[in-house]
């Protein structure tokens, strides 16, 4: 079947695009639209054309799978120009998403109308490129330069009502989109037509505007190349004739398309989409998830509950006693109240989210839940006791999950009558924000239980990654090696502050030492002490020396750095230098690039060991873990990608 079909309703023709799954602009679609313009221009009975899409969305953009290959005609900028120059005005009728090339097609149309829940945007920077078919040149002609800069440098889409207010679309359609768009077209052809977008004027902000914008973009891009390039392209649009700006944009697009950053971001894009539906589980039905319980309302429990409420499901919270129930509910309320403060939620929405959580100490309340997620203290005895109770009260098919970070899930499940419905679901803090969900089956976990873990990941809009059982699973195991390697550099005489600066320069939000100061050095210390108490041979770390001296991080006024009260900025510490004297070699001249190469290399080496042991299924899975759980820069593709390609 053709991806483009034409129908006529009197004077208004309808061009329908049907290219599942997301109507991406592959060659066949570009050719189909090209031919449609010619056919409808040649038909004297047609006065206007409505462009509409079948399926879940309007045209979602260029076909990203074509980016690694040479471009094939008709090229997208030519197609947009062809639609814009059509003798009959085209009306883009948008539902779902009009993104990137999809929005550029809409910009070629004389009018744009959209359903209220539709979104439009220029997400190209998230793929390491910039718009390649006029996005940076036409968009500011509709909404002004500042809004275009915001859209294109962040890649964040706008919902239809905001797009309407910004001048990016002409109407929000209530009810049936096709009917509404046809009615819009009928009315529009009775009026004088507006200029095509390319012929409209554009404002020219002064040099100070661009300087400010460049500074802001460089700060937020943290090393990604595309955001500043898209800014330069919008500037060109504001300062040069239309055709010159189009050439400038296209050249930049073609250049960036072939870069390592773009390859990294494309790889991550497809890995993220593959992760929630692993091929091995394609034929396994997940169990329904309608009601979930969480045991423990501390840091993690409250975050997990918030994530489940955000997905619209009711939650039961079980705590140790009534006071703990109240504290747990207050922890959850704090998350939603924070949403109100930041303007993300109304009071009423926050209240409704809170109302969906029932707190109790009574395990009988769990008789009909579909899943239980345990997030109590990290102590094997406490966890085992919890699962013994769960085994007694829950339905035999209810999935029972632990959020343990380091304990062996097999030991936790030992007391369960039917361990096939047991699984590890390892969330990351804050659990309502962080996208990563490590899914840790035991040898007894059934395929249905595993599939239900992934179903939960999809429901909560997480990036689920399966991990085998080992100390720290995928993410924390690599973290441990990374931190040990960073300490190794300190021992070799590399200053702590230079290591942190190197990793920030590499694109992480924080270096390894300032991150430990924020989270607290005591957690890992206690873990090592626990292992030592069990007779394991765990070498004394530099972190141990600091904790023994009372330096647990920001919360104690100092860790690897000193902190002045009320100020989170780390200050190089003479006390630490003194404490570590004798452990540390004289200062070396290692550069920041060399430091980052060593530390990322260590992460990748641990990742390789994890692959060799079958703990992770693919390098892409490891990269997703580091990007979505540990703030590894997305544009570097993750440690495995980066160490292969050396970006
Ligand atoms: N090209 C190729 N395949 C794409 C694609 C694209 N632009 N966008 C999505 N897909 C594929 C996905 O890989 C997935 O494939 P799978 O089913 O085999 O795993 C399938 O389409 C469905 O995608 P999602 O799971 O993401 O579907 P959702 O319904 O959740 O989301 C969406 C729909 C919001 C459109 C989302 O897919 C999306 O954001 N897509 C990317 C949009 C984008 O970045 N467009 C810009 C491209 S660059 C460009 O246009 C350059 C131009 O300026 C020249
Ligand atoms: P926390 O100490 O903040 O919360 C634990 C909660 O469990 C407390 O509210 C406590 O009252 C409750 N609790 C203890 N025993 C209970 C019992 N028998 N029945 C019901 N409730 C009980 O701990 P946190 O940080 O939330 O950690 C919970 C689990 O999540 C641990 O296994 C931890 O390893 C894991 N985890 C923690 C992460 C973090 O960053 N804090 C990240 C990922 C996992």
UniProtKB/TrEMBL annotation:
Record's keyword terms, sorted: Fatty acid metabolism, Isomerase, Lipid degradation, Lipid metabolism, Lyase, Multifunctional enzyme, NAD, Oxidoreductase, Peroxisome
Database matches in CDD domains: crotonase-like
InterPro entries: 3-OHacyl-CoA_DH_NAD-bd (IPR006176), 3HC_DH_C (IPR006108), 6-PGluconate_DH-like_C_sf (IPR008927), ClpP/crotonase-like_dom_sf (IPR029045), Enoyl-CoA_hydra/iso (IPR001753), NAD(P)-bd_dom_sf (IPR036291)
Domain 3-hydroxyacyl-CoA dehydrogenase NAD binding stretches: 291-466
Major site of localization recorded for this protein: other
Subcellular location as annotated: Peroxisome
A Pfam family reported for this protein in Swiss-Prot or TrEMBL: 3HCDH
Subunit details: Monomer.
Protein name as catalogued: 3-hydroxyacyl-CoA dehydrogenase NAD-binding domain-containing protein
Protein source organism: Paracoccus broussonetiae subsp. drimophilus
């Amino acid at each position: 079947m053709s991806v483009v079909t034409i129908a006529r309703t009197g004077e208004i023709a309808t061009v329908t695009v049907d290219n599942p799954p997301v109507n991406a602009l592959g060659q066949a679609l570009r050719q189909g639209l090209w031919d449609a313009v010619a056919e409808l221009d040649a038909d004297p009975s047609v006065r206007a054309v409505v462009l509409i899409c079948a399926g879940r969305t309007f045209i979602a953009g260029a076909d990203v799978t074509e980016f690694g290959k040479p471009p094939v005609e008709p090229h997208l900028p030519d197609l947009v120009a062809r639609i814009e120059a059509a003798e009959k005005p085209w009306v883009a009728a948008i539902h779902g998403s009009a993104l990137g090339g999809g929005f550029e097609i809409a910009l070629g149309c004389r009018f744009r109308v959209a359903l209220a829940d539709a979104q439009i945007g220029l997400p190209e920077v998230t793929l390491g490129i910039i718009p390649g078919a006029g996005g940076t040149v036409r968009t500011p002609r509709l909404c002004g330069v500042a809004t275009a800069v915001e859209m294109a440098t962040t890649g964040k889409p706008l919902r239809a009502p905001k797009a309407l207010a910004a001048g990016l679309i002409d109407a929000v359609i209530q009810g049936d989109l096709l009917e509404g768009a046809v009615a819009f077209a009928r009315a529009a052809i009775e009026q004088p037509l507006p200029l095509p977008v390319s012929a409209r004027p554009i404002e020219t902000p002064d040099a100070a505007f661009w300087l400010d914008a460049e500074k802001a973009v460089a700060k937020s891009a943290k090393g990604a190349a595309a955001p500043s390039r898209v800014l330069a392209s919008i500037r060109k649009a504001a300062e040069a004739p239309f055709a010159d700006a189009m050439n400038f944009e296209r050249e930049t697009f073609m250049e960036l398309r072939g870069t390592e950053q773009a390859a990294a971001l494309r790889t991550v894009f497809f890995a993220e989409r593959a992760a929630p539906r692993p091929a091995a589980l394609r034929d396994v039905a997940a169990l329904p998830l309608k009601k979930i319980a969480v045991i423990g309302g501390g840091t993690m429990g409250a975050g997990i509950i918030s994530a489940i409420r955000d997905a619209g499901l009711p939650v039961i919270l079980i705590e140790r006693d009534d006071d703990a129930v109240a504290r747990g509910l207050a922890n959850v309320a704090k998350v939603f109240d924070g949403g109100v403060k930041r303007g993300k939620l109304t009071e009423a929405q926050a209240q409704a989210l809170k109302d969906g959580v029932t707190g109790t100490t009574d395990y009988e309340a769990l008789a009909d839940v579909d899943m239980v997620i345990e997030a109590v203290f990290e102590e094997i005895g406490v966890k085992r006791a919890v699962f013994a109770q769960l085994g007694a009260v829950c339905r035999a098919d209810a999935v029972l999950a632990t959020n343990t970070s380091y304990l062996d899930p097999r030991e936790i499940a030992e007391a369960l009558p039917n361990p096939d419905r047991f699984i590890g679901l390892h969330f990351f803090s804050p659990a309502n924000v962080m996208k990563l969900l490590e899914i840790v089956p035991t040898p007894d976990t059934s395929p249905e239980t595993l599939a239900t873990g992934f179903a939960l990941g999809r429901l909560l809009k997480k990036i689920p990654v399966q991990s085998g059982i080992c100390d720290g699973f995928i993410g924390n195991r690599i973290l441990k090696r990374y931190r040990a390697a960073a300490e190794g550099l300190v021992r070799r005489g590399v200053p702590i502050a230079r290591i942190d600066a190197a990793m920030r320069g590499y694109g992480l939000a924080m270096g390894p030492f300032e991150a430990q100061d924020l989270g607290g050095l005591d957690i890992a210390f206690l873990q090592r002490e626990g292992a030592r108490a069990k007779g394991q041979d765990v070498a004394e770390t530099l972190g141990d020396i600091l904790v023994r001296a009372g330096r647990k991080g920001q919360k104690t006024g100092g860790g690897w750095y000193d902190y002045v009260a009320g100020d989170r900025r780390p200050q190089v510490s003479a006390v630490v230098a003194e404490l570590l004297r004798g452990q540390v070699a004289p200062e070396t001249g290692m550069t920041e690039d060399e430091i980052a190469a060593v530390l990322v290399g260590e992460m990748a080496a641990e990742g390789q060991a994890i692959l060799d042991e079958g703990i992770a299924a693919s390098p892409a899975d490891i990269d997703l873990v580091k990007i979505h759980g540990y703030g590894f820069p997305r544009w570097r593709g993750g440690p495995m990608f980066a160490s292969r390609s050396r970006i």
